[in-house]
């Protein structure tokens, strides 16, 4: 390496293969100083003037901007901001033809200059050596500096190279004919360029900086040598004039005898190349704080009266440049952006100058003739001799024509720098580079498509998997045994809740008193309808006492909860339900009537317990055979002659029968929940025990039944209900809704949440009503099941009354299907109607 | 006796070499890419079903089992050619008289007309449509394979198949443009 540096310092260069010597035509434009142009009428500033992503617009139409004000801010990687080239108004932000051979429209900011040319606040730095690496990188980034040699690579990325840079090469070769922008820039601003080089040296800390200048620019070489004299780390190297020595890879080979590996970047071999124009822009950005808003452009060609170099604001329309330099177009005039070798003919001159525009060439037909028609390749191999990348242009051409892209890749098409040397030497005038360009785009497109196809495949597979998963889940939902799916944790919770509920009525005498009041009301109704003649005198006294108790309790409750006030109407409704049930029970079974002569109050509890047991047993076995047994059990175990007990027993029996007949579990559950409300109502201190028994029975049944959660929640509701009859009725409604839902097999989560709602059933009836509404809504939702997402609570609530009617109808239907006598059905219908009515009332009350 | 020894010697040798070969066969097994995989990578993965199979993979399997190779309109002649090379059969023109160079399209939902029925979402084989019930849907252009499958189910016909826009990255020089020459 020491040897290499010594050789470089001696001025040795290592010629690259190939290359051509087109006429320079540089003297046309390099004799004059860089001119300043008058402000154009409008500036068309494209958002994207570099390789990488667009910045994000931070200005809007109609906004006043100052010279140097940022128009975009960088967002993604490789995005470089653009700045207002002069002060003025943004008249539009729209799609305009871009500085590209296709002239495909591109988002541009259109600025109408106000003529003031007033700068925004700048932040110049006098001693960049005191700035940190990051600060300098940020300055370079924020000032929008991108490579000005041709590709427009964001400079901040190059300057922040992760790899160690050994040689920093400054590209001042400017090998393409006609172009003299870098030449005159070096002549006029050598000191600035050297300052820019020093900033890059600070950032990259290279061993050596080599400035490569072609020997056809003696003034520039002299100016640079004079400016760089004091810095022994900068070597001004004169290179022979040969096209394309300004190509990055060619220049590296020329100056350091290193070759960039195929597909690699110069940093891979510790080399970094920057254009002189870029370095001057870096100097301007750091020392003067000026963003990149103007650049030197060579305006030349035979049709230009006053060829030369100009400072052009970015966004200046090409037409303005041409007009200012005097332009007399010939028929079928071509205007080329860039040089004659690598430039492209502009489709329109209404295109703004961008950061990479170094030359506008307006030749007449003599100096740059239209290419003639393509002739057959004669295999002269002149192209191979001229190729600076040691490729086989002729082979590439064949493969490109036959679209053999694999072969093209094998022949290293992507190492082609599109310099045009092959096409220049081709005697058959084959537009070789054009073929390569098309082939390159095709290959890139194919690769992109391959990537896209891979992703599409992946997405397709994932979708298929997802659909399979969903299907499986749906099947499982139908099949599953909820008891098995319930986690131990949930079971524990339910058991706890159950225990709580059981303890509650036992402790609370007041509550049972209230329940007693309900029972009394029922019994009263029963008196009027039952065939047995009641003996009520002493019971009535008892009742009066309990009424008092109930009132007291309700007052207490009202004190704690304002919403809870006694509602006679509702209790009447509940009573009506009880009555209807009792009637039904009486009608359905004759023998039960005989046996239900319950002797004493004390034994009521025993009777209730027996009922509960019977139920439990029944539920466990669910067979019609057992029905008889349970009935007989009831018969033998019921010595009490209290009418109430009799009624309860009758109800229980009726239920048992019905349950035995009813096939769907839902109706059983419905009935049970109802019966609980009723059976729980007989007023007695031992009612608590009864309720507990019921709850136990329920729990047992629940363990065996299909939907554990629902039953539990129902039993909880039911046992907790004696607090007041209204609530009980509401709870019954909820339970019904639940039963319905359970039948429709909603998801486990829903069930859980609902059971929670139920256990948390509020003390006041208003809340209970709301809960009922929710339960109904849920039931409805469950029915819809699939469209769960679309059903919103609002909708469900709005339809509450309708749902109530539906439920009533359903309730009507079920007994009709199962009951053997029409009377029973009529009774059940009456109950359902009453309930629906009540729910409606509650809804309207609310 | 000599014959006996010779047989034993040969048998032993055969056994040893057999063991070596057997071990080598297991130890140095080359995981060759099954033909279905290779065909599948050639197919354009639009999952459009125009071949009559529910996706590219099933078609790849069908080709491996001897189906025609010219049933993939989105792939065009290039795909047919590649498949012909792979399968060692004659390349044929596309079935159904499809154009050789298919124009790449992507779905575009006219969003103000979309009623949010989710039908197109269900139809999309690559989940490239986003939206929810009664909400406007839109197509993820980058993920859309241009398979047309969403067009049919749309009840309000608000889905258009638009050609993919040319960008500067995908733009190509027009090489077959007829040169304009002046004849004196």
TrEMBL record, chain B:
Gene3D superfamilies: 3.30.70.20, Electron transport complex subunit B, putative Fe-S cluster (1.10.15.40)
Spans traversing the lipid bilayer: 6-26
Amino-acid positions noted as binding [4Fe-4S] cluster 1 in the UniProt annotation, renumbered to this chain: 48, 51, 56, 72
Domain 4Fe-4S ferredoxin-type: 105-134, 135-164
E.C. numbers: 7.-.-.-
Record keyword Electron transport present: yes
Major location (coarse): membrane
Cofactors that this protein relies on: [4Fe-4S] cluster
Compartment(s) of residence: Cell inner membrane
PANTHER family reported for this sequence: ION-TRANSLOCATING OXIDOREDUCTASE COMPLEX SUBUNIT B (PTHR42859:SF3), OXIDOREDUCTASE (PTHR42859)
Assembly and binders: The complex is composed of six subunits: RnfA, RnfB, RnfC, RnfD, RnfE and RnfG.
Family to which the UniProt record says this protein belongs: Belongs to the 4Fe4S bacterial-type ferredoxin family. RnfB subfamily.
Name of the featured protein: Ion-translocating oxidoreductase complex subunit B
The species this protein was found in: Pseudoalteromonas rhizosphaerae
Upper taxonomic lineage: Bacteria, Pseudomonadati, Pseudomonadota, Gammaproteobacteria, Alteromonadales
